[in-house]
Amino acid sequence: MVLERQREPLRPQDRPVPPVGEGQLLVQVDACAVCRTDLHVVDGELPDPRLPLVPGHQIAGTVVESHSPSFSAGERVGVPWLGWTCGRCRYCTTGRENLCDHARFTGYTLDGGYAERAVADARFCFRLPGGYSFEEAAPLLCAGLIGYRAYRMCAAARRLGFYGFGSAAQILTQVARADGREVHAFTRPDDAAAQELARAQGAVWAGGSGERVPLDAAIVFAPAGPLVVEALRNLEKGGLVVCAGIHMSDVPSFPYELLWGERVVRSVANLTREDGTSFFARLASLRVETRRRAYPLEDANQALADLRSGALVGTAVLRV
Ligand SMILES: [Zn+2]
Ligand SMILES: [Zn+2]
């Protein structure tokens, strides 16, 4: 499925199998989970994608051809958002490759996984954890990985607030609970289905985003700037608000006293390979369940529409 121009539907297209270069893998895609970032690319909220583009950056599949010593044909592999970095800039050389000035991103500036075949740089791919089907593993590759990066920034906060209960919050609630944290899930006030899902996955409390609940840290997953202020209103002194999305509407102005007391607002951008390694190591002793809705690849536009409208509870996964 190909995006020819932003703000237009994806179109099915027959393409030749892409050439595979040195250090790359040819992957037979089995499942590709749909991320809100895909919507931002399709809807034109993120500038300058490669066009025409195959979207999708949560790819789970099988290596069919390997031009790298680190993977063999037949292995189960995951392809995440971070697709290439320069290795030389001041960010790459200081352990911050997620901020690389020249980074390339799967399903944005590189072709992604809304396709039968994908090509990826082996250095940025992960072996899929055992015990997860392709469909189960796909949401781990962005919602899981970047969510985990945001979660680790919350350090030892005991009372966590998650604003927006989509794919990432589902996964992180289970990790946080296993780590002995309390998760408070904030959703649209009338979204009983999301609140019920949050409680089922281990949140100690779920309610509307305007509710007052004391928090040590909050992660804002939803792309709505006013939620940053709502989160700040709930934050104890020394607390942290992490904005986990790549795009967000404007954050309204707010009184300085909400930030006073060494409260911090920050974003989390992309992932490093180390985030992935740590996350999958964490999953070795923790089984994470996600609620998913599977769509055939050719229904990618419907999956995006359901995510856009808020009608989707859980994670959309395209099956190839
Ligand atoms: Zn770099
Ligand atoms: Zn994503």
Strand content: 15-25%
Main β sheet profile: 7 strands, mixed
Instruction: Give the terminus-to-terminus CA distance.
Output: 11 Å
Using the coordinates above, name the CATH class of the largest domain. Alpha Beta
Give the overall silhouette.
globular
SSE arrangement, N to C: EHEEEEEEHHEHEHEEHEEHEHE
Roughly what percent helix? 10-25%
Bound molecules: zinc ion
Q: Supply the number of helical segments.
A: 8
CATH homology superfamily name of the largest domain: Medium-chain alcohol dehydrogenases, catalytic domain
Radius of gyration equals 19 Å
Question: What is the CATH third-level topology name of the largest domain?
Answer: Quinone Oxidoreductase, Chain A, domain 1
* Total number of beta strands: 15
* Low-pLDDT windows of residues: none
Tell me the structural class: alpha/beta
- Please, what is the average pLDDT? 96
Count of distinct structural domains = 2
CATH architecture of the largest domain: Alpha-Beta Complex
